[in-house]
Amino acid sequence: MTQAHIEVRDLTMAYGSTLIQRDLDFTIGRGDIFIIMGGSGCGKSTLMKHMIGLLTPARGEILFNGEAMWECDFAYRQSMVKKFGITYQSGALISSMTLAENIALPLETYTDLTPSDIRDVIALKLALVGLAEFGEYYPSEISGGMRKRAALARAIALDPEVLFFDEPSAGLDPVSARLLDDLILQLRDSLGATVVMVTHELASIFAIGTNSVFLDPETKTMIAQGDPNQLLADCNDPKVQMFLRRGELLEEA
Ligand SMILES: Nc1ncnc2c1ncn2[C@@H]1O[C@H](COP(=O)(O)OP(=O)(O)OP(=O)(O)O)[C@@H](O)[C@H]1O
């Protein structure tokens, strides 16, 4: 049994009086590639925002390395969140800065590294994502797939313990999406990190996912959890099967 890295305990999420999901309870193991799945609008991004300290639970708790994220004060929570690397759907690189300058930003903000050390870290991170030659390029001068990888280089600048991705392969062609999956696997292994991903991409889910939770927008709670390949083989819930089989339900035996 792998060691728990993030534990979601009895979590209820709401925007004001609007309930989004209730009674979420699951564990993400160290080294997992954990997929948050479910139909449109069920609350996947909302769950991720709770995990990264942006939204406060209506009820329940999230533990990181066994420590409660919401019981503690803001400063302590920030020290936990610093161990997370986050990439959003758009990549969100700053367009007026080169890739190297984008990666330098978290290093200048959160570390005491010298300019020369920062240059070394930038070179290392760019090399890790296959962009060694592109440090002086601006985001608009490279392809969409390269922008995703550059955003990843920035997310790993501070050697995070957990990497969070919201729809990492959105807008990519299948080959670039596959390369991004390979890169996520490679980074998980080289950083010894845990990965948490919101994605609809079945190919990615089955290729790299090791654990998952399935959120249902109708009952507003989780209806399945576990290895996605195992869920495909064993889960009897028709909504989960519909999702994992791209809408094609198994014929009744
Ligand atoms: N800031 C907000 N205030 C109020 N409601 C919100 C807010 N953000 C999201 N919602 C609502 O919460 C619900 C869940 O949204 P969320 O973006 O988490 O879903 P999702 O599963 O990630 O969706 P998708 O798959 O379409 O990206 C939606 O009904 C959405 O309209």
Automatic annotation (TrEMBL):
Q: Where do the ABC transporter domain residues begin and end?
A: 6-244
Key word ATP-binding present:
yes
What taxonomic classification does the UniProt entry list for its organism? Bacteria, Pseudomonadati, Pseudomonadota, Gammaproteobacteria, Alteromonadales
Does the keyword Nucleus feature in the UniProt annotation? Answer: no
Q: Which UniProt keywords apply?
A: ATP-binding, Nucleotide-binding, Transport
Q: What is this protein called?
A: ABC transporter ATP-binding protein
Q: Which organism is it from?
A: Corallincola platygyrae
Listed GO MF terms: ATP binding
